[in-house]
Design brief:
This protein has four helices and two strands, in the order αβααβα. The protein is mostly helical. The chain is elongated, with a radius of gyration of 21 Å.
């Protein structure tokens, strides 16, 4: 994403600043939204620009690894965010049905 016509020194400085900014956002989201015993143990960082998502995943694997070390943290685009939310909705529905089945089975055991 850095202009290839810039001197290497400038490109390195911009890349370092970019990585520091992304890590700062990762840390902020992890500290605000991942609270053991209170919130979910996972968080996602929504990236509005597909180019930014592609840049991070293609050229900055260290940022992806850094994010994953933050307890199930990841980057998503709008389409992937929708997929995540739909899967979550689906799993929650299944979880409710499993809980209802377990309660039903427990009631049956208590009746015997």
């Amino acid at each position: 994403m850095v202009d290839k016509n810039l001197p290497q020194v400038d490109r390195n400085a911009y890349e370092k600043a970019f990585k520091m900014d992304v890590k700062k956002h990762i840390d902020a989201i992890a500290s605000k939204y991942i609270i053991p015993g209170i919130t979910s143990d996972q968080a996602i960082m929504f990236l509005l620009a597909e180019a930014l998502f592609a840049e991070i995943n293609a050229y900055h694997s260290d940022l992806v690894e850094y994010a994953h070390k933050k307890e199930g943290y990841g980057f998503v685009l709008l389409l992937l965010l929708l997929v995540h939310l739909l899967l979550l909705k689906y799993y929650l529905r299944i979880w409710k049905e499993i809980n209802m089945l377990v309660l039903y089975m427990m009631n049956l055991i208590n009746l015997v």
